[in-house]
Design the sequence.
């Protein structure tokens, strides 16, 4: 397996990393990790080249979002069996629970205890956006991070974000010691969230680039439309949908590591096998065009023609109209509301979502695409529905 330097950390990490958010569970209960199966897949993965694990305070919590999950405690027990020094352990500060500097100290110490370790290799601020970054600054986060580095409690500092490119600019202007940025990326998301532009920017700043959601929650490899499979089949280089998705990312020199939420030993073996024959600049120009064509075909199934220009904003009722339409379109593209429900409900407050639309119509005349925005808001509300509002 190839190892790439993680930005300015000088650490060499495997191009395939373990994402510890979707571990095997008992009887479908997300909070009950199957320790035997999970230990088996981690042991195999590490023994066969994977050297980095990403978790978070909330991973494998129950249905109440933001509570302490069981991913960290599981990893604490597993790594005690002789694997701690073989991996870079990465976890995240629970942004939504931070109000004061004392909170920062409390949760870091609690996570060290849960992970049964004296230090965390990579400590990331979880899901940073412009709003919670201001909360962090009010809690004196910069001094906290500097002190945690000096004390040896953490080795490297970073952030994860589902924000915009502007978010990256704000973060890097406010703090100059970032070493790692974890962002969402796959061949459907080149212009979504921080996108390709964000990866290039982080690399230009010598900040380590890590990728989450390479398969868009598995939707790029499940229930593939026939027309998409026919398009893949036109390539001389035969690849499975999984290979296309992963190698699209590993083909980029500025992608240091891709995290996959592997749930079975078979998935681990398959992903390692693909990683073992993947490297940068291996995809032909013809196949790069094919990937773009496939992405375009997927996007033909979007729900509406919103371009996220933002001319409709601000909404007098506080609704984030572009966000609602982005996730609605992704859900339609993948023919599955659940594919984007987590991001729809999680990354913005409830008052910014479509069900708060009063049909006032103030936004309609501002839309360059001539969308009937109130009508489209009703579609978004019905598309997601209350049954998904538990993330």
Sequence:
């Amino acid at each position: 397996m190839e190892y790439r330097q993680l930005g300015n950390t000088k650490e060499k990490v495997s191009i395939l990393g373990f994402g510890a958010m979707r571990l095997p569970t008992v009887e479908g209960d997300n909070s009950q990790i199957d320790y035997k199966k999970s230990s088996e897949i981690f042991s195999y993965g590490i023994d066969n080249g994977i050297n980095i694990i990403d978790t978070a305070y909330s991973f494998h919590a129950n249905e109440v979002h933001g509570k302490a999950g069981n991913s960290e405690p599981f990893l604490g027990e597993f790594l005690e069996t002789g694997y701690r020094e073989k991996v870079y352990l990465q976890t995240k500060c629970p942004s939504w629970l931070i109000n004061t500097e004392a909170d920062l100290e409390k949760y870091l110490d609690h996570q060290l205890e849960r992970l049964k370790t004296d230090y965390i290799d990579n400590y990331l601020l979880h899901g940073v956006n412009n709003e919670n970054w201001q909360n962090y600054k009010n809690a004196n986060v910069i001094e906290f991070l500097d002190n945690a580095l000096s004390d040896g409690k953490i080795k490297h500092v970073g952030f994860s974000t589902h924000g915009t490119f502007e978010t990256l600019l704000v973060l890097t202007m406010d703090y100059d010691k970032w070493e790692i940025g974890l962002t969402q990326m796959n061949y459907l998301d080149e212009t979504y969230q921080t996108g390709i532009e964000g990866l290039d920017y982080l690399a230009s700043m010598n900040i380590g680039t890590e990728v989450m959601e390479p398969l868009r929650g598995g939707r790029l490899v499940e229930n593939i439309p026939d027309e998409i499979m026919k398009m893949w089949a036109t390539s001389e280089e035969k690849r499975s949908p999984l290979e296309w998705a992963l190698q699209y990312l590993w083909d980029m020199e500025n992608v240091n590591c891709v995290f996959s939420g592997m749930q079975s030993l078979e998935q681990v073996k398959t992903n390692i096998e693909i990683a073992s024959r993947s490297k940068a600049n291996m995809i032909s120009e013809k196949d790069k065009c094919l990937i773009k064509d496939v992405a375009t075909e997927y996007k033909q199934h979007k729900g509406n023609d919103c371009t996220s220009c933002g001319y409709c904003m601000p909404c007098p009722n506080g609704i984030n109209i572009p966000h609602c339409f982005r996730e609605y379109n992704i859900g339609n593209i993948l023919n599955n509301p659940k594919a984007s429900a987590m991001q729809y409900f999680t990354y913005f407050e409830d008052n910014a979502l479509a069900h708060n639309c009063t049909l006032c119509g103030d936004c309609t005349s501002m839309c360059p695409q001539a969308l009937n925005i109130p009508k489209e808001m009703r579609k978004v509300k019905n598309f997601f529905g209350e049954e998904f509002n538990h993330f």
Remarks:
- The CA atoms of residues 42 and 205 lie 32 Å apart.
- The longest strand covers residues 154-161.
- The longest helix spans residues 285-299.
